[in-house]
Design brief:
- By secondary structure, the chain is of the alpha/beta class.
- It has a single domain, classed as Metallo-beta-lactamase, Chain A (4-Layer Sandwich), CATH 3.60.15.10.
- Helix content is about 25%, strand content about 25%.
- It is built from nine helices and eleven strands.
- It has helices at about 5, 60-70, 85-90, 110-115, 175-180, 195-200, 205-215, 235-240, 240-245; strands at about 15-20, 20-30, 35-45, 50-55, 70-75, 95-100, 120, 135-140, 145-150, 155-160, 220.
- It has a seven-stranded mixed sheet, with helices on one face. A four-stranded mixed sheet has the order 8-9-10-11.
- A hairpin with a 2-residue loop joins strand 1 and strand 2.
- The longest helix is centred in the last third of the chain and has 13 residues, at about 205-215.
- The N and C termini lie far apart (about 40 Å).
Length: about 250
């Protein structure tokens, strides 16, 4: 299938979501043989600087578009998987600070790739964005962790893999039953079953993190794979995370 059939064109360009927040649709990438659309989220801070959440592939045209909005100051690898495009952005944006999900720097593939991780993300948002963006760490077993970000002015919640909403008609026919069985098929979407198993092992800690996400009452929820929740964000998030909330 062609990229435009799997992902959400136009690709690799900025698309406005709300004041001071944009997305960039890209891909597809392959995960376990499944071609997946991917998405980066861009937040402009009150200082005028930009933070790139889960960077997609680097491109000079996209870099120019971003710099029209403001200087790129922060590159954020928000979970244990979404870091592979960071190095290319570091090469072309040497002054940007790279932030890593908890435990990411310990992973062998990250060290082998030579990705420079400047600072680790934690339960509390750093001073660089704490006044406009809150963050929550979703823990998991086996070194997995994902950091969620809530942009307070626009009431936009940004996740990575915790929620997926894959439109099966955009995937090869042979893959469609597996996506439905995994629990990540549109229009309802949710946490894929393999990730549920990893997160569920953290019990009360994971439930508390889910409770914080739902308490934000987001208007919209952006995530990396599939059609994001453009409206009724709070209700759709509560349904998608019902398995965590108990």
């Amino acid at each position: 299938m062609k990229p435009d059939q799997v992902a959400y064109p136009p690709l690799d360009v900025l698309k406005p979501v709300a004041d001071d927040i944009w997305i960039v649709d890209s891909g597809p990438i392959r995960a376990g043989g499944v071609p997946l659309p991917i998405r980066m989220t861009v937040i402009r801070l009150p200082t005028g600087g930009l933070m790139l959440l889960s960077p997609t592939g680097f491109g000079f045209t996209l870099k120019a578009q971003l710099e029209e909005l403001g200087p790129v100051e922060h590159l954020v690898a928000p979970n244990s998987v979404h870091w592979t495009f960071v190095k290319a952005w570091q090469t072309h944006l040497p002054n940007a600070v790279t932030w890593a999900a908890p435990g990411l720097r310990k992973r062998g593939p990250v060290r082998e790739a030579g990705v420079n991780l400047d600072r680790d993300l934690g339960a509390a948002a750093p001073a660089a964005w704490a006044h406009v963006v809150e963050q929550v760490v979703i823990p998991g077993a086996g070194g997995f962790a994902e950091v969620a970000f809530f942009h307070k002015p626009s009431r936009t919640l940004v996740l990575t893999d915790l929620v997926q909403n894959l439109e099966t008609e955009k995937l090869p026919m042979v893959m469609r039953p597996f996506i439905r069985l995994a629990g990540s098929a549109a229009p309802l979407g949710g946490t894929p079953i393999y990730l549920r198993a990893v997160v569920k092992l953290k019990g009360r800690e994971a439930k508390a993190a889910a409770g914080r996400l739902v308490a934000f009452e987001p208007q919209r929820v952006v995530f990396t794979h599939g059609r994001w929740f453009e409206r009724d964000g709070a209700a759709q998030l509560r349904r998608a995370l019902a398995w965590m909330l108990g």
